[in-house]
Structure formats: structure tokens, C-alpha cells
């Protein structure tokens, strides 16, 4: 089953990391990603730009575009992983590995995926959990 691991943290804390601190965290997370890739369990990974770059489209009678993220919280969604795991316990184990690699404050929210369309900007086939997904382009 595919799971999304949503990465929440305090944006001001992460944004204050020095380039060396950021590189060290990314290297440790990269080691976890490499293990998942070798096991053919790694899907999409994204690190989001700061919330200052975000806009939100509010739905309702009229569509309204506002600056900033939807949530008014101290912890922000900073990125996500898609992983192929046998069950929830295995997905929790992956999140624990990520937490060890990035022991700062924050949280990992783990949610099963109902639909996964990996998309591709280059049209190359992607593989998750031993299954090739041929895609038609971005947003496919």
C-alpha cells in the first residue's frame, strides 16, 4: 500500500538553519531515501518552498485567491514522501527513520493514499514498489 508521509515543522526554525546544517539534514534524509529506493519502495519526494511563496484558493460561492498557506498554525507542511509499505506499521517505521535523520522538532503525519498519479515532467517511467508507472506528463 502507498502512504504519504507529510513533513511538518516550524518554518522559522528550519529557515534559520545554516547552509551546513541544512546540507547535513538533507544528507541524513538522503540516506533513508537511498535505502527505500534500493528496496523499490520510494515514490515522490518534495520539499516545499516557504509559505511566503504560497497562495491559497478558497472555494465557495466565489473563488478567492489569498496570499499564504491555508493553515494558521506554527507548524507548516514543509514537504512529503510517498512510500510503498506492506502496512501502517511499516510506514510508521519509515517515519521513525526519517525522524532519526532529522531529530529537530516537528511531526510526520502518515496517511494511506487512495489515488496515486506520479506524473512526470520528462515522460520517463517511474517505479514504486516494483510496479512501473508510465506517465503522460506533468499532472498525468
Protein described:
- The chain is an alpha+beta fold.
- The chain has one domain: Alpha-Beta Plaits (2-Layer Sandwich), CATH 3.30.70.
- The strands form 3 sheets. It has a 4-stranded antiparallel β-sheet.
- The longest helix has 20 residues.
- The C terminus is likely disordered.
In CATH, the architecture is 2-Layer Sandwich
Helix content, binned percent: 25-40%
Evaluate the radius of gyration: 16 Å
CATH superfamily: Dimeric alpha+beta barrel
* CATH level-1 class: Alpha Beta
Largest sheet: 4 strands, antiparallel
DSSP E strands, number: 8
Shape: globular
- Domain count: the total is 1
Topology, pairings included?
Elements (H helix, E strand, L loop, with lengths): L1 E9 H5 L3 H20 L3 E6 L7 E4 L5 E4 L7 E10 L3 H14 L5 E6 L13 E3 L2 E3 L7
Antiparallel strand pairs: 1-5, 1-6, 2-5, 3-4, 7-8
Helix pairs in contact: 2-3
In short:
With 140 residues, the chain is of the alpha+beta class. The protein has a single domain, classed as 2-Layer Sandwich (Alpha-Beta Plaits). The chain is built from three helices and eight strands; from the N terminus they run E-H-H-E-E-E-E-H-E-E-E.
Observed structural traits:
28% helix; 4-stranded antiparallel beta sheet; Alpha-Beta Plaits; alpha+beta; two-stranded antiparallel ribbon; 140 residues; single chain; 3 helices
